[in-house]
Write a structure and sequence with these properties.
Elements lengths: L3 E3 L15 H4 L3 H6 L6 H11 L4 E6 L2 H13 L2 H5 L6 E4 L5 H8 L3 E4 L2 H7 L5 E5 L11 E4 L2 H9 L15
Parallel strand pairs: 1-2, 1-4, 2-3, 4-5, 5-6
Length: 173
Amino acid sequence: MDRLGIDIGRVIIDGSAGPGDTSFFQGDRAAMLRTPAVAEAFATIARLVQLFDGQAWLVSKCGPRIQQRSLDWLLHHRFFERTGIPADHVRFCLRRPDKAIHCRELGITHFVDDKPDVHEALAGLVPYRYLFGPQRSRHVPAGVTATRTWSEVETAIAGEPVPRSPRPVFPGP
């Protein structure tokens, strides 16, 4: 069964609101909650959740303070209600490469993230990887599809055929 994994920062929560997304990370609660969603994120994710028969998770790297802010933002914006991702389908880790641990445990087959090093850590584990958003560098890891917008993610996953590698065998627990 196909399973979708999605990063949160700069993929769902818009990081272009300021340099380093300071209102989200350093502002007061009201400023943090005003941080907008990435354009098209909620509607596209809702369609993808249907495409993946509800098998979708958020997997994000951040410390405890930003974990709580992320959850508060998601709840405030009714993310779970509006997209169909269950509220208990959220995983956090403290280092980007550790996203691979969650992807292995969850059997993630498709992953959307804005960091090339995350995709490199998922190579050989997650066959369908999408580098999201405008990139500061032109480096797109091998086997990863560059997608600038949620519309491009949806097209890459559900639309036109995209070259894909064979699915890996996920080891048991």
